[in-house]
Write a structure and sequence with these properties.
This protein is mainly alpha-helical and 665 residues long. The chain contains 23 helices and 2 strands. Helix content is 65%, strand content 1%. Component of the exocyst complex.
Length: 665
């Protein structure tokens, strides 16, 4: 039909014009509650009235007595219902607008408006119910944790089955989210956004809180923390460390995506919904690390403090992205507060740990010059600490290292040299701090290497504090040789711990080499002092001129050897296996070759003097070697190289290191 013919359907020769609008008369459209009274009635009036009537039929079909859901078996009913709500809202806008193209009387328009409003109220009640039903019925699909479990499959090797299962879950979730979005947009466009948001926030907040609770993360108050012993407290921390990444990367992230999809038409609404749903739970989770940081401090807690700091730091990008708007500022502030508090506690605990080493006042001597318990404790602590290089680097980034106390003047400053560490030869008289900025082993370090170097400096300093403390404890031994053995055992233990752990990467091979050389120097000093009398009892080059001289020299050697073996029987003669082999070989090289030459030259002389004189020869060279190896816990063949030596210089240690008069050189 031509377009101009359309107009003729709505005009007649007897229908007068009212302004620019065309109108119809008829007894069919009357007053409110029934047919409209005869009056001017435009096409728009009639269309809006028909919309109200059609919507009434749809809404009556889904009255309060109907238990089924609009989104149950079919999709047609839900579409008709949502369209009816939109039509009602449009009719209300028409009849309430003064500028609407309508010739109906005020009373007629008011009656239509009231009727539409009543129907819309009933429809909104139904949509609120539908929103609750959708959120409840599809809870598993909408909750990230539950949706992951729904997608699980029994045979982990069946990849195709897994893919199909995940696809089905994602498809069902998409359908549920489209339905939620349709309901939400309909309610919001009809002016009932407040009711929609209230239902959504209540339902989803409950779901999020339940998901967090199911993670097994119990949030404690400061008063509750005080009542826990450390084992219980550490268990709570482990639970939090396991739960927090799941909460932020799965639960809160999934909730943010859900809000973005359901309320895609309004930035303000989706931000408000996400804030009210997730803000309290997220802030409470992030408050836990701060609660831990405020608990009683101890060196043992440092590692859990660093675990928490590392966890929050790793989550910070997600936190900053998800909770980026103003309504969620509290979450970001709580994360920063926890980080700052944890960092402050970590720095304080490190300082307290150093002070505890310096204040150790135990004066008991370790039997046999073995490894001191303080050495074991500190090195085990530092080995664990080396695993936290990244968080420590971040924590100390803005805090340049300054030594809390100077080193003793007698301490060997060369031990301070590491790829990023050096110290002056003697402490300043007017300053109690030592600067390590000028290192002979580094030049113009990069910012990244400087950050790592800062941690290396702190670790190296703690080791030096320990070594200085051990030097004082070595003075408790009456035998100087035993004090050297104590230092050799403990320093070699330190070096071995560094070599076998992440400390080696922090301190460097140069550090290991220097301290290893110092340990061998201590061992050489022990060798020189402990076996000096035995070596001195052997004449130079084994030469003897008379039987009397041979007899006296041999008796002196026997006495010195037995005294040395008897005196060292209870000593821990070098606890480290590698260094023990070196010391054992060096002692054998010092004594056995010289004794072999003396033995060969003295036996003929003594035999000529008679059996009584010959009886003074109690040990063969092999016997002497076996006594030495037995003392060190070695076997006969383990150090055979000692026999092949041509002699031993009294001024040589056997380790290539000079013998010094001061053991702390």
């Amino acid at each position: 039909m031509p377009r101009k013919g359309m107009r003729s359907l709505f005009t007649s020769s007897s229908a007068p014009k009212v302004g620019p609008a065309l109108h119809l008369r008829g007894p069919r459209y009357g007053a409110a509650g029934g047919p409209l009274s005869p009056s001017c009635f435009t096409f728009s009036d009639r269309s809006m009235e028909e919309n109200i009537a059609a919507a009434a039929e749809v809404i009556r079909e889904w009255g309060p007595e109907v238990d089924d859901s609009l989104f149950g078996s079919g999709r047609a009913d839900s579409g008709r219902f949502l369209q009816a709500v939109s039509d009602l809202h449009r009719s209300m806008l028409f009849f309430s607008s003064p500028s609407a193209v309508s010739c109906a009387s005020t009373a007629v328009r008011s009656a239509a408006l009231l009727r539409a409003h009543s129907l819309l109220s009933d429809a909104i009640c139904r949509l609120e119910r539908e929103l609750k039903l959708l959120l409840s019925a599809h809870g598993q699909l909408l909750n990230p944790l539950d949706s992951l479990r729904s997608a699980s499959f029994s045979d982990s090797s069946d990849v195709e089955c897994a893919a199909d299962s995940i696809t089905e879950v994602e498809s069902a979730a998409d359908v549920a989210i489209r339905d939620l979005r349709a309901v939400a947009e309909t309610m919001i466009s009809a002016g009932y956004g407040k009711e929609c948001v209230r239902v959504y926030k209540t339902m989803r907040k409950s779901a999020v809180d339940e998901s967090i609770h199911r993670l097994g993360c119990e949030l404690l108050t400061q008063a509750q923390v005080r009542k826990l012993d450390w084992a219980e407290f550490e268990s709570k921390i482990r639970d939090w460390l396991a739960a927090a990444p799941i909460a932020f990367r799965t639960i809160f992230s999934g909730e943010r995506l859900l809000c973005d999809r359901v309320f895609a038409s309004s930035d303000a609404i989706r931000e408000s919904c996400f804030a009210d749903v997730a803000r309290d739970a997220a802030a409470s989770l992030l408050a836990f690390p701060e609660t831990v940081a405020r608990s009683k401090r101890s060196p043992e807690k440092l590692f859990r403090i660093l675990d928490l700091y590392d966890a929050v730091s790793e989550l910070w990008p997600e936190i900053e992205s998800m909770f980026s708007f103003e309504a969620t500022t509290a979450v970001r502030l709580q994360a920063l507060a926890s980080l700052l508090r944890l960092a402050e506690v970590a720095r304080s605990t490190m300082a307290n740990f150093e002070a505890a080493i310096q204040k150790d006042a135990s004066r008991s001597r370790v039997p046999g010059g073995g490894v001191h318990s303080l050495t074991r404790y500190v090195m085990d602590y530092l080995v664990f600490l080396a695993d936290y290089e990244l968080p420590l680097t971040d924590i100390f980034a803005d805090f340049p290292f300054r030594a809390q106390s100077p080193l003793p003047e007698s301490f060997d400053a060369a031990l301070l040299a590491t790829p990023s560490l050096s110290a002056p030869s003697s402490p300043s008289a007017d300053s109690t701090t030592t600067s390590f900025e000028s290192s002979p082993w580094s030049s113009s370090p990069s910012p990244a290497s400087s950050a790592v170097g800062s941690i290396s400096v702190r670790i190296a300093w703690l080791v030096l504090v320990l070594i200085c403390k051990l030097d004082g404890k070595a003075e408790l031994y009456r035998e100087v040789a035993l004090s050297y053995l104590f230092l050799a055992n403990n320093l070699q233990y330190i070096v071995q711990k560094v070599k076998e752990s992440g400390l080696r990467l922090l301190l460097g091979d140069e550090w290991v080499a220097r301290h290893g050389a110092k340990a061998r120097h201590y061992a050489a000093s022990y060798e020189r002092l402990a076996w000096a009398k035995v070596a001195a009892a052997i004449p130079e080059d084994g030469t003897v001129t008379t039987a009397v001289e041979a007899w006296e020299r041999m008796r002196g050697f026997n006495t010195a050897l037995e005294a040395a073996c008897r005196g060292q029987a209870g000593w821990v003669v070098v606890a480290d296996g590698g260094l023990r082999e070196e010391v054992m070989s060096a002692v054998a090289a010092l004594v056995v070759p010289a004794y072999r030459a003396f033995y060969k030259r003295s036996r003929p002389v003594l035999r000529v003097s008679g059996a009584a004189s010959a009886a003074v020869v109690r040990f063969s060279p092999e016997d002497v070697r076996n006594r030495i190896y037995g003392l060190f816990g070695g076997s006969m063949g383990s150090g055979s190289s000692g026999d092949s030596g041509t002699g031993s210089s009294r001024g040589s240690t056997g380790f290539g290191a000079p013998v010094g008069s001061n053991r702390l050189e």
